[in-house]
Request: fold
Amino acid sequence: MDIDRARTFLEIVHCGSFLRAADRLHVTQTTVSARIRTLEEELGRQLFARNRNGAQLTPAGREFERFAQSFVQVWERARHQLALPAGRTGAVALGGELSLWNPLLLDWLVYMRKARPQIAVHAHVGVPDQLLEQLRTGVLDIAVLYAPKLLPGFRVELLQEEQLVLVRTPAAGGEAASGLDYVYVDWGPLFAVQHGAGSPAFGEPGVLVGLGPLGLSYILRAGGMGYFRKGAVTPHVEAGELELVEGAPEFTYPAYAVYAEAGENRPEMQDALAGLKRAVG
Reply:
């Protein structure tokens, strides 16, 4: 089976449309249709039912999806394996959200360097949808995310349940920051629901940011208050740069490792997952 046909098949599954798949693959819709037609001829089965709403998998298509997924992942692993530096016996590609890289994934990198130096590591940073796309297409072996979408053929494993806590910068003269100084950090839809139901009423925030480290750096320089990961703010609290807001509700913020079921028994994958568990321990 041709790798481009397998990638095209999976892209249509992901997008639900031949046209959108063509746009994402940077080819013409005619090319996409020809690849799928050839694939269906080789398999002797119709894989998609096309209608005005796009393309839906047939029963044969649903059965073929896991094989196409495995094929693409094996192809990517083969590319990584053939490109191994001298002295390395395997490779693992891991990606994570920016907010997770310090300290969790940084600790993981250090662990892998010390405990498993024979394994080459490819480290990526990205936004959730991008990381899941790279995972789905085999570019990544493991993605570490806060709120992963469920993908067929992939396992989701809880790594840690960190707390989001409300902190503020001590104001001059010992006065606490007011609600006008509140910086809202978008920690995802679950936080938005919990925050709206359980947090103090700050009114409309003057600053809204979509990235935890950016919001934290902002209030450290400009002053204010906001919700951040407990592990990230603890050093600043201990240094007197921030203070916890007593009585404010805390919110659970779990992080997960997502990886393909087909590759979980690879020795380097087991080492990488064991390293993640040590990093959060």
The mean pLDDT is 86. DSSP finds ten helices and eleven strands in the chain.
